[in-house]
């Protein structure tokens, strides 16, 4: 197992992606519940390209592995399949067959679940109980709908951030420049709070809400009564990052690592997970 890394850093991600692909059974360590599936996405997928460009990272998709006896499954959320739980061999086969290109896949283990003998690892019993909580949460089930509105929100934030960076580099004075400099969304992996009213209406999103006590406008997908009711009933749709972040929060010590509260404004993307969570790279499998 390699040294612990924050895979949100592009150079470290490149090191993982440059490894030769091997079969999951040849990684040297048995796959366990809680291991992460990280992918840059397909080169031909425009949303994956936008995520990589806007977050300045190599990652556009994330999932989590689940082990039941000898069987290993992938749980993730995609626009094509919504939330799914499928055998890892089937997931790898689909990655190779679907679309015009194949997406590389790197498997990594959160440091907390790597064992007490490694830096940052939990005691074996504590790690086992955290894995059991993840399995129990998956058994409770998830909504089958993919959160397309959240993806539109992310796309709008990334576009706003890109415009802000372009104007900052040009250093052009004026009202628009000052507005973008003041309100431009911070790079992904941090908390992004800007959404333009016109962009929100054009995307068919709920209205912007003012964060109590805050000085910036944010779009909160829980702002409508319908969305709040769905969340309370456990029926709110997921993106891949939201799904994995909720499961990672079940690991002891991670409870508040990702803000998933209805009032929260956390910007969740695969890059966000890869740069906040210390990981041990298991290897590349595709």
Structure in words:
It is a single chain. This protein has 286 residues and is α+β, with helices and mostly antiparallel strands. It is 37% helix and 15% strand. The chain is built from ten helices and nine strands. The strands form two sheets. A seven-stranded antiparallel sheet has the order 1-9-6-2-3-4-5. Helix 2 crosses helix 5 (148-170). The longest helix is centred in the middle third of the chain and has 23 residues, at 148-170. It is globular, with a radius of gyration of 19 Å. The chain starts with a strand and ends with a strand. Residues 167-173 and 176-223 have low confidence and may be disordered.
Average pLDDT, rounded to a whole number, is: 76
- Please count the beta strands (DSSP E, at least 2 residues each): 9
Enumerate the strands of the largest sheet in spatial order, edge to edge or round the barrel. Answer: 1-9-6-2-3-4-5
The number of helical runs is 10
Proportion of residues in helical segments:
25-40%
Biggest sheet record? 7 strands, antiparallel
Runs in which pLDDT lies below 50 for 5 or more consecutive residues are 167-173, 176-223
Strand content of the residues, in percent? 15-25%
Radius of gyration: 19 Å
Distance between the termini: 18 Å
Question: What overall geometry do the principal axes of the alpha carbons give?
Answer: globular
Element string (H = helix, E = strand): EHEHEEEHEHHHHEEHHHE
What structural class is derived from the secondary structure elements?
A: alpha+beta
């Amino acid at each position: 197992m390699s040294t612990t890394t924050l895979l949100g850093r592009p150079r470290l991600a490149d090191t993982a992606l440059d490894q030769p692909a091997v079969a999951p059974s040849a990684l040297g360590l048995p796959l366990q519940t809680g291991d992460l599936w990280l992918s840059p996405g397909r080169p031909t997928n425009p949303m994956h390209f936008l995520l990589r460009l806007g977050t300045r990272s190599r990652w556009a998709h994330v999932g989590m592995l689940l082990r039941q006896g000898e069987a290993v499954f992938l749980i993730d959320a995609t626009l094509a399949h919504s939330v799914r739980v499928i055998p890892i061999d089937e997931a790898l086969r689909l990655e190779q067959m679907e679309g015009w290109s194949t997406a590389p896949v790197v498997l990594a283990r959160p440091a907390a679940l790597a064992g007490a003998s490694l830096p940052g690892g939990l005691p074996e019993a504590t790690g086992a109980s955290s894995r059991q909580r993840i399995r129990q949460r998956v058994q409770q089930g998830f909504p089958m709908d993919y959160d397309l509105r959240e993806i539109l929100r992310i796309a709008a934030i990334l576009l706003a951030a890109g415009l802000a960076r372009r104007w900052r580099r040009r250093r052009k004075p004026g009202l628009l420049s000052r507005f973008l400099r003041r309100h431009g969304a911070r790079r992904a992996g941090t908390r992004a709070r800007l959404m333009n009213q016109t962009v929100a209406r054009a995307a068919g999103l709920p209205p912007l809400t003012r964060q109590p006590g805050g000085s910036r406008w944010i779009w909160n997908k829980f702002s409508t009564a319908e969305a709040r009711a769905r969340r309370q009933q456990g029926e709110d749709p997921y993106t891949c990052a939201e799904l994995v972040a909720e499961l990672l929060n079940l690991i002891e010590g991670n409870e508040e690592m990702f803000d998933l509260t209805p009032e929260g404004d956390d910007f969740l993307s695969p890059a966000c997970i890869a740069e906040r969570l210390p990981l041990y790279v298991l290897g590349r499998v595709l």
